[in-house]
Amino acid sequence: MFTGIVEEQGILQQCIETGLLISARHILQDVAEKDSIAVDGICLTVTELGTDWFRVDTMPETIRRTRLASLHPGDHLNLERSLLANGRMGGHMVQGHVEACAPILSTREDGIGLDVVIALPHDLRSYIIPKGFVALNGVSLTVVDVWADRFSISLIPYTREHTNLGQAVEGMLLNLETDIVGRYVARFFQSAQFNQ
């Protein structure tokens, strides 16, 4: 379980079909092999590590469902260690189970914020609501508005400085995970209607 509060931006060193090699410092202070790290919002298992790098394996389903296939060495990745039971819940409950990869449709400066409009995959439309939670590249964000085929968020300066969402441009692909509580509620009502 994660919170969507990014701890560090790592640098992708190597990206092959079966795994990633990522350089990092801060998050490795108390990480061991077999621990989970959210990499751009994807829950991945550390399989090997050094003092300033770690390796994770990637399955074909992970490649199909996320933006990993579009990455290149040198790209910045949002990193978060799994939540400690005695830690603060600063964002929202993030599982690291990316549901879709969605492109940015537009960006617009709005005072100190950056408004970002993102395509809304058809099968996730019932899970995204105004003022609800969404995780984009592992970052916990509040949904500003929702339309039939898109939704918007607004990025504060801190998020732009400390995550790879600061590089947001039209066409950039984002890993998207909807709110788990919302998914369960929607599933409950769908099942109740089906069983009537």
Contiguous low-pLDDT stretches (5 residues minimum) are none
CATH class of the largest domain: Mainly Beta
Q: Total strand count, please? A: 12
Rg calc: 17 Å
SS summary, helix count: 3
Percentage beta strand: 35-45%
Looking at the structure, the CATH topology of the largest domain is Elongation Factor Tu (Ef-tu), domain 3
What spatial form do the alpha-carbon principal axes imply?
globular
Our count of domains comes out at 2
Kindly state the percentage of residues in helix. Answer: 10-25%
Helix/strand/pairing category: mainly beta
Output the strand order for the largest sheet.
1-2-5-4-3-6
Average of the residue pLDDT scores: 93
Order of helices and strands: EEEEEHEEEEEEHEH
Domain Lumazine-binding: 1-92, 93-189
Pfam families: Lum_binding
Catalytic activity: 2 6,7-dimethyl-8-(1-D-ribityl)lumazine + H(+) = 5-amino-6-(D-ribitylamino)uracil + riboflavin
Keywords: Repeat, Riboflavin biosynthesis, Transferase
Give a quick set of tags describing it.
196 residues; mainly beta; Elongation Factor Tu (Ef-tu), domain 3; 2 domains; 6-stranded antiparallel beta barrel; 6-stranded antiparallel β-barrel; 12 strands; 14% helix; globular; Riboflavin synthase; transferase; Lumazine-bd_dom
Architecture overview:
It catalyses: 2 6,7-dimethyl-8-(1-D-ribityl)lumazine + H(+) = 5-amino-6-(D-ribitylamino)uracil + riboflavin. Catalyzes the dismutation of two molecules of 6,7-dimethyl-8-ribityllumazine, resulting in the formation of riboflavin and 5-amino-6-(D-ribitylamino)uracil. The protein is mainly beta and 196 residues long. The chain folds into two domains: 8-81, Elongation Factor Tu (Ef-tu), domain 3 (Beta Barrel); 100-194, Beta Barrel (Elongation Factor Tu (Ef-tu), domain 3). Helices cover 14% and strands 40% of the residues. It contains three helices and twelve strands; from the N terminus they run βββββαββββββαβα. Strands 1-2-5-4-3-6 form a six-stranded antiparallel barrel. Strands 7-8-11-10-9-12 form a six-stranded antiparallel beta barrel. Strand 10 and strand 11 (150-155) form a beta hairpin. The longest helix is centred in the C-terminal third of the chain and has 15 residues, at 180-194. The chain is globular and about 55 Å long. The termini are far apart. The model has no long low-confidence stretch (mean pLDDT 93).
